[in-house]
Please model this.
Amino acid sequence: MNRQFVVVGLGRLGISMVGTLDSLGHEVLAIDKREDVIQGLADDLPNVHLVAADATDEDAVRGLNVEGFDAAAVMIGENHVEAGILATATLKEVGVPRIVARATGGIHARVLERVGADRVIQPELEIGEQLARTMASPVLLDYVDLGEDEALIEAEVPNAWLDKSLSELDLSQKMGLTVLALKPKGGPGSLPHGDTVLHEGDVLVVGGSKKTLDRSPLVQPDG
Model:
């Protein structure tokens, strides 16, 4: 289904979001104050509506008719914290129903939430946490932060779980973890059952709270 999104701030993160939304077939309005940035992206993003405008100016934003859009992302860089806050407040004021905003720290994140951001991301912090986890664990392949306190992990079966069935491990009751998918070594992925036995090389997708996942053998393989 074709949807409409607005992305404010065309640094590397903003451009990545614009390109991905465009590739998914959605209508994208990309805004940046810098005219040279807008002109430089025109050839690479022919299907995107690129506008040089000040997203902190309510009249300018209303003139773009974004109130009917599905969501907005405010990806203004760390050197323009105030502009990011004002742009978030402006988009909320004109009626954009969902806003994702980039923060550079905890105080910035709290201010963004107070002025209307529905979700606040801290990319550098989140990537750093993900890389630390994957570096620290020999079985962890990927870590996806779902926001709030939830996450998904993709990992090879740790030694502590080898040759045991899921019902025997009883991960939901004993650890608060939910096994969502299993990909046996050399085979297609599937939905696991209680009698599924885990073998070396199998890959699991497991969900749970970040604290629970961090204490599990998926992140603490010797635990």
